[in-house]
Predict the 3D structure of the following.
Amino acid sequence: MNSADLIARAEQTHTLTEDELLHILTDTQADATLFAAADRVRKKYVGDEVHLRALIEFSNICKNQCLYCGLQAQNKELPRYRLTAEQILALAHKAVEYGYKTVVMQGGEDPFFTAEVLVPIIKQIKALGLALTLSLGERTREDYAAFKTAGADRYLLRIETTDKALYEKYNPGMSFENRLRCLRDLKELGYEVGTGVLVGLPVQTLRSLAKDILFFKELDADMIGLGPFIPNPQTPLKDAPAPVLEPSLRVMALTRLLLPDINIPATTAMETVTPDGRIRALQSGANVVMPNVTEGEARLNYALYPGKACAGEDPSKCRGCLTAKLYLIGRTVSTGYGFHKRMPRNGIIV
């Protein structure tokens, strides 16, 4: 089995088997070939524009106990906050002023934010002419339907790992089947659906990551967000090995080859691990960046992991900074909303 041949075939057919994915993930000597192929596929299917999504981290309160996450309920060292509806809407207004076309509302699974609380906020954000992505965790189908009716366009719910035993080990009290139910409900309700995984969890295998990539294809996801697992000193996994960037880039690049027209963010975690991590991701298949417009203590205390890149920056300056960086690698900022445009693959529109 030759990695270069497999990569060349995947670039043309957008298919690989689990064993073929595993072979490429194992072959670190094939990185340059893999990343270049993913970049070509990105350019062919989604072009050189980069979509910017303005991130509003509206609550770091979470009822869950995920062992890898700094927001987990048992972390007593983290100062907690919850933005008011007025504060959330003020940030959405600022996102418009900064020139963003999409807002991402992201928070822990905070019981305060019921559908009754969120629906008016969603409607008011949509009234600003923005596309809206929600990242609110596991909800009932009825909640998801209410959010969609109110105007939400996209929903991001990372699976984190498709290994059921691993998922339930690191997400105590949570059900893998319910996670899958949520993703199915979101698809059926007409959302653009995003998911993704952590790369580098303790005892995670490369075969598990290969299965994750095939799951993305089976789900027919619209967007995939993934990045390196960064141990948080305030969590049970604090002593896990330090992260490296390349395994995440491999998973991301293979995801681009198999799902050529989807949206893939260059995540903040990648830049946290390596200063040029987001740029390298954008040169290896990514086409989205999610600058943070959250302000003040809230910006600092949405502490999923330590050392978060850009945590101390002025949100009003992020767009200009990103635009300059993108220009240097031959990319431009999109002026559109960045919806998933499904393109013909080998003559077939999927």
User: Anything to note?
Assistant: The radius of gyration is 19 Å. The first strand starts at residue 49 and ends at 59. The mean pLDDT is 95. Residues 60 and 278 are 24 Å apart (CA to CA).
